[in-house]
Structure formats: C-alpha cells, structure tokens
Amino acid sequence: MKKLIILSACMISVFACTKEKYAVNHSFWYKTATADDLTAYGITELTLYVDGNEISTNDAYKHYTSDPGCGTGNFVYTDNMFKRENKTHSYKLLDEGDSLIFEGTFQMKQKTGCESTELVFGF
C-alpha cells in the first residue's frame, strides 16, 4: 500500500509539471523594391537561419505589397512556446553564395500567434 501511495504521488508530480505548448509563428518578408535590388545584385535565392538553424530557402524575387502574415510562400519560423512566454531569437538570411544579406533579432510572444519582420535591402 505504501508503494502505491508513493507511486501515485510520483505520477501526479510528473504530470502536474507538464505544461501545454502553443505554436507561434514569425514571418519575414519584403516589398518589390527589395526584390528588385536583390535581383540587381544577382541574388537568386535566400536561406533563412534562426538561432543558427536552417529554416527554409526561397527565391529572392518573391515579394509582397503588404505584410502577408504567416501564410505560405514567405519565410515563416515556428516555435512551440508555453503560455505567456516570450523569446528572443537571432536571424540571418544568406544568399546562394553564403553571403550575409540580412541579420537581426526578433521577439516572439506566445499571446500574439503571428508577428512579422519586413526586410529592407540596402548597403
């Protein structure tokens, strides 16, 4: 009986500490002027890295007239976060020759669900 009580207490403590995580997205996008500048420099594709991990590769000519949100087609990073959690991440975008084109940091907040960063090309 004593073993059953101890086992029950252990199981309750294990499951009581399990918190649900929620998918939160962050989008990276740019307008026509940036796409034109990238093309003028001969850049044909970009690869997004977040915290050093490769996320996705897109054609450099893809652009938007306004924030596309976290739908498909643009660069979207997804993180699983606890309720009311905030995280700061670093990002960089490299071209097909591994040259650094964009870099910075962004913050994700669990309560927002989707945020975005507009990228502007210029030297």
From TrEMBL:
Q: What is this protein called?
A: Lipocalin-like domain-containing protein
